Amino acid sequence: MATMTTVAGMDVMGTRSRSRVASVSERNSSLFEAQRRNRRGPTPEVFFTKHIDNSRIVKADDPERRREMRTFAMVMGVLFMLVMVYVWQHFAAIEVGYHVEAQKSQVEQLREENRQLRLTEAQLSDPGRIDKIAKQLGLDSPQPGQVVRPDGGDVNAPVLAQAGTTSLPAY
Questions:
Q1: What's the CA dihedral at 122, 128, 130, 132 to 10 degrees?
Q2: b/e burial code for range 131-155 (CB count within 10 A of at least 16 → b)
Q3: What gap in Å lies between CA 137 and CA 131, rounded to an integer?
Q4: Rounded CA gap, 99 and 93, in Å?
Q5: What is the pTM of this model?
Q6: Which of 26, 55, 93, 96 has the fewest Cβ atoms within 10 angstroms?
Q7: For the segment 127-160, what is each residue's pLDDT rounded down to a tens digit?
């Protein structure tokens, strides 16, 4: 019998606490609805913060957790360094590629300039052009014995045109 009253008492207490929780939640929801109806326009709800002082709480030192964190930090450091080395190599390869392309472009430009200079040299060293300019300046073919070669070659060898140190007429 005592067991039944205890069970019945618990049952009564459990019913009371459940009905109390239900009545509190019903009361809160009805208050919330009343507040929502009384609001005029879109005013925000105001919540007040409660400052809690946790300065007296001391965290216990956990050597296993510290060791795990140290290991994790070292692994992340090594991973970071590997990624940085990969990125550095990648950008270095790109930079070398740009440098190679710039050098190729410069070589092509110099080849074109060399071709232009050879063409200009060929045009300027044309014997017919040189003879025409010599005649415009009043130069004639040299007479036999007039040309003296510094290497001591044949004096009577044919020469197209050669100017001495004569002064040119002023225009």
A1: -140
A2: eeebeeeebeeeeeeebeeeeeeee
A3: 10
A4: 10
A5: 0.40
A6: 55
A7: 889 888 988 998 888 787 777 767 666 656 666 6
